[in-house]
UniProtKB/TrEMBL annotation:
Gene3D superfamilies on file: 3.40.50.12370
Keyword Cytoplasm recorded: yes
Protein name: Universal stress protein UspA
Natural source organism: Reinekea forsetii
GO cellular component, one term: cytoplasm
Subcellular location: Cytoplasm
């Protein structure tokens, strides 16, 4: 289930975060959640002030809180309860993870920067730290506003060709259904398969590659249709695409004007590290829409 009571927005001073706060406010308003705007800062020079160091740090953090309050006004104008938090730490990701460890948080929201000219999103060290270590759902936003009717795409793999556990698709879809319901939107399924490696292996004179290709497609289509049916999702909202996921997933999301794509991560070594999978990590920086990573 994707239940929201406490949403935290990580404000990075190097990112334009107004849209991220606006989107968090939309979710908070729809779900009755509270919000926390969180940032961290550090200036090594202030540690050299001897007896004045503590006062200097307090003044530094106070200036950060003033900046947070200006952004908090976006949500407070909608009668959303907003708390602000600024901590002394040079590593924003680690600071937020420490905060989450001691507080109840249901969703982390953070802005990312997508460069339209080269069609790439620049993920910072903090972004990757959160992708791999954040224990709660993580919404990485772009600068584009959501449509009035939000379209959520759940990226699934019903034949588990990427060695993904079967329960992950169920979790991704349920989060998509919950999120779409909260936003009065619509959820779609997207499954991309790449038959190229197998077709190369089967490229023998005695084998009818056309028949094999159609058989592979039908296998994926049947698996996707079965998954959609089991979740009460209409067949026309279950999209099957063929090709390299690294190319096809971003193109599909862009061409169909999707607002949010949901991808899943699993823990391979306890709760210390979450892995999206090799393919998913390669596709992330080409995606032009908001990405919700569920754990």
């Amino acid at each position: 289930m994707f239940e929201l009571r406490q949403i935290i927005v990580l404000l990075d001073q190097s990112e334009e975060s107004v849209t991220a706060v606006e989107k968090a406010a939309i979710l908070a308003k729809k779900t009755g959640s509270r919000m926390t705007l969180f940032t961290s800062g550090y200036d090594g020079a202030l540690n050299n002030l001897q007896n004045l160091a503590e006062n200097a740090r307090d003044a530094y953090l106070s200036r950060l809180l003033i900046g947070l309050d200006s952004l908090a006004a976006i949500a407070r104008a909608q009668d959303i309860v907003v708390h602000t938090e600024a901590v002394w730490d040079k590593h924003a990701g680690a600071a937020l993870l420490n905060y989450i460890d001691g507080n109840s948080v249901d969703l982390v929201v953070k802005a990312t920067h997508h460069q339209n000219v080269i069609q790439r999103t620049f993920f910072s060290q903090t972004d990757w730290e959160l992708i791999r270590h954040c224990p709660v759902p993580l919404l990485l936003t772009k600068g584009t506003a959501w449509h009035p009717k939000v379209t959520v795409t759940a990226a699934v793999d019903p034949v588990r060709s990427n060695d993904k556990p079967s329960f992950l698709d169920d979790h991704i879809i349920q989060c998509g259904l919950d999120l779409a319901a909260q936003l009065d939107g619509q959820v779609q399924l997207l499954h991309v398969y790449d038959p190229t490696p197998l077709m190369i292996y089967l490229d023998q004179p005695a084998i009818n590659s056309t028949d094999i290709s159609e058989e592979i497609r039908q296998q994926h289509l049947d698996a996707l249709a079965s998954l959609a049916s089991s979740k009460g999702i209409a067949t026309d909202l279950a999209k099957l695409e063929m090709g390299s996921p690294v190319q096809v997933i971003p193109d599909h999301l862009y061409e169909n004007d999707i607002d949010i794509v949901i991808m899943g991560a699993v823990s391979r070594s306890g709760f210390e590290r979450w892995l999206l999978g090799h393919t998913a990590e390669k596709v992330l920086d080409r995606i032009t829409v908001d990405i919700l990573i569920v754990k």
